[in-house]
Design goal:
Order of helices and strands: EEEHEEEHEEEHEE
Strand content: 35-45%
Number of helices: 3
Number of strands: 11
């Protein structure tokens, strides 16, 4: 799709890592939890954990009408790098626990899907969607939670909020 940039589907995270990065993109097109879950589900996954950060109708006690997300030109690569770094760290942890073979949860892959919207969004639109499948819930929750936190803190994306009173505020522009 011409409106998405980042890692495409089915990118293996490394030989024997036990992780698969299914998607790690910024998208001008709508994204959904259902799309993310469908992409990571598998017969070997005992758990699928998802997150959807949606546009809310208020911030700081002020009514919000809509948002616009802008990304730095490097944000596409940063998004891919953030996901790859998370995978590298978790694959290393799993290898240490599993021994020299490096099997993760018996060899079943941990699958990761992440997308952040750019452009104009309305109230209720998903802005950040992540999904992680794993053999066990603990690992799926842990990886998904870390994924969301890292994307929010490391990917250079700025939010422009349009309030009902006509004022506008940039969030994250100083980061």
């Amino acid at each position: 799709m011409g409106t998405e940039k980042g890692m495409g589907t089915g990118t293996p995270a490394g030989t024997g890592s036990g992780f698969e990065i299914v998607n790690a993109v910024l998208s001008a097109e709508p994204i959904s939890v259902a799309q993310a879950i469908a992409a990571v589900e598998s017969d070997t996954a005992g758990a699928v954990v998802s997150f959807s950060g949606v546009v809310r109708n208020h911030d700081g006690g002020k009514p919000v009408e809509r948002l616009s997300y802008s990304a730095h030109p490097t944000a596409h690569q940063v998004m891919a790098d953030v996901v790859a770094q998370l995978v590298a760290e978790h694959a290393g942890d799993a290898a240490a626990v599993a021994g020299p073979v490096g099997a993760v949860s018996g060899g079943e892959p941990v699958r990761i899907w992440a997308a952040h919207r750019v452009g104009m969004l309305e109230i209720g639109d998903p802005a950040l969607v992540c999904a992680v499948s794993a053999a066990h819930r603990g690992q799926a929750f842990e990886v998904c939670s870390e994924l969301v936190d890292r994307i929010k803190t490391q990917v250079p994306i700025w939010k422009e909020q349009f309030f009902s009173d006509g004022t506008v505020e940039w969030v994250g522009a100083g980061a």
